[in-house]
Amino acid sequence: MFYLEGYSTNIYLVRHGQKQDNSKDHEKLELTEKGFKQANLLGKRLKKYNIQRIYSSDMIRAIQTSEEINKYLNVDIILNHELREIDMGEYVKKDWEYIEKNFPDFVDKFSGHLSDVAYPNGECGEDVWKRSKSVMNEIINSGLDNVAVVTHGGMIRVLISGFLELHQERRFFFGSPLENCSITLVKYDNKSKNFYIHYFNDYSHLEDLQG
Length: 211
Known about the structure:
The chain has about 210 residues and is of the alpha/beta class. Helix content is about 35%, strand content about 20%.
């Protein structure tokens, strides 16, 4: 277990399992066969941590991940629209070549990650942080010891930046892309009102599926 004296809430941030090809409708992307296997292994690991509730993005790939891990947890799943992935606007509909041609100012600012810029007709990191605060407040005031949050890679990076009070463009400097069904453990101390990052992007439970 990961209990530490003084800590009141363990928040297990989980990225959804591997999804189908991005050429499909972004809203309706489902897990692949591998994605379900990843979620199953994740559920086996989370069973050790006495998870009391799952909060999940309401996008299909997150819901499927939540349902798969809940085979081992048997707890309530709370779907929340605010936990959705960052809205990448035109980038979801088109390719990067289209973005470079039609939104050169965005590309110049985004490429160096020197400021928090919104995707064309989409969101910036601060937009996502603001919309996620209500569910985070609900979690830390829930009185629960252990909560799983099943969401998306971009959202997890936004949350970590927000918890640490970093400028949102810093979210791109947290290392390699988050692995599907990885765990990032955040501990919230109700006394100090601080968040502590215990570990980031841990996918050791998926070792047999790598490669």
